[in-house]
Amino acid sequence: MTEEFDLDDARKRYHFALAPEDYERLPFYSALLHEFEHDTIALELLAGVRAEQRNPMLVLATLQLAALRGHDVLGPIYDDARHGVLEDPKGAATRALEVLHAAPDLVRGELWRSTQTNEPGRSAVIQAVVRDLAGESERINVVEVGASAGINLYFDEFPVRAHDDGNPLTLVCEDVGPIDRSRPLPRVLSRVGVDPNPLLLASHEDRLWLKSCLWPEERRRHDRFDAIIAAQPSWPTVTMLRGHAKERLSAALALCDDSAMTIIVNTWTAFYFTVDERIAFFNDVAHRCANDNVAWLSIESTMVKWPDIDVEDEVRHRAASQIVVTRPGGSAIRWGWCHAHGRWLERTTAP
Q: Looking at residue 19, what is its pLDDT?
């Protein structure tokens, strides 16, 4: 029996799953989350997920997975949503909920998975912060913790613009504050990812799951993913290590060129750590930054509480991601804020 406390927690997670700006942009997902927030079966499904993956997006992704596999009701709904021709988002959300009621195991049977969005839009943020952390350095290494399929290890392969230029690989990002994108990015010598369950872009099933984690109403994200699949074979080599950060971070750093600074990156990874795991990770990274030519770039939910970093409660930042950095020999500071998918970036520290 699911405890009422767990249902209350699940209800809050559904309610705050999207940023205010995203509720306006995504009428189908907004309606679906509203239905789930007030539905016992949907609440019980989320409350029953293991704590580190109790994310509403996991439930939503499993529904889209069924749609991509050809479900007779969900397939047409999600196809219309992806192509921007869904005429009745609320009605579609109701039909999707009816599917959930008729066959809850359609979702329950896939909740062993992890949300591995591997959102390339975050590369727009990574580019800006890496330029700042690297300073005058022309060469760096990058180690990503929670790399999934390693897409953001190719952060320097994406053009970034203020407006859509028609190229599916272009990342559109609104910059606020003192952000300089004019300088060339440093050359990346080593690209190493660490993940408990790394995905392969060459695997059909892994690609299907990665697409399932994309919001269906954002066709541009789906088009970009398809473009990445086509382009990735020509991009630089990435090394992926299977395991958790506490087990594999040292091995990942050992693969880097020790003549250059190494930047450890995590984007919506610590969100899935326990509190003890977050503190241990923070302390480990802080020690490495203090004693080696290592920097840290963290892009995480405001639900992730880092030691000595206060989380402000402002409307713009309420559902945003906090950017925290540590320079070699320095201490952790908040660098700024960004949209969870890199749609905007705000720097709040001086250059």
A: 82
Contact present, 71 and 99 (Cβ < 8 Å) = yes
Amino acid type, 74: L
Question: Among 108, 130, 152, where does a domain finish?
Answer: 108
Predicted model pTM = 0.88
Q: Does any domain span residue 115?
A: no
In percent, how much of the chain has pLDDT > 70?
Answer: 96
What is the C-alpha separation between 29 and 221, in angstroms, rounded? 15
Q: CA 113 to CA 200: how far, in whole Å?
A: 15
List, in order, residues 6 or more apart from 41 with CB less than 8 Å away.
Answer: 100, 101, 104
- Domain of residue 8: give its range: 4-108
- 123-158: buried (b, 16+ CB within 10 Å) or exposed (e) per residue? bbbbbbbbbbbbeeeeebbbbbbbbbbbbbbbbbbb
d(CA 190, CA 154): 11
CA atoms within 13 A on the CB side of 344: 12
The predicted pLDDT at position 231 comes to 97
Q: For 116-174, where are the alpha helices, taking DSSP H only?
A: 122-134
The CATH number covering residue 312 comes to 3.40.50
* pLDDT tens digit sequence for 50-88: 988 899 999 999 999 999 999 999 999 999 999 999 999
Q: How far apart are CA 163 and CA 4, in angstroms?
A: 46
Give residues with Cβ within 8 angstroms of 175, minimum separation 6: 128, 162, 181, 344, 345, 347
The pLDDT of residue 311 is 66
3-state secondary structure of 350: coil
**Residues 221 and 331 reside in one and the same domain:** yes
Q: What is the distance between the alpha carbons of residues 14 and 246, in angstroms, rounded to a whole number?
A: 30
Q: What is the pLDDT of residues 100-122, one digit of tens each?
A: 999 999 999 999 998 887 899 99
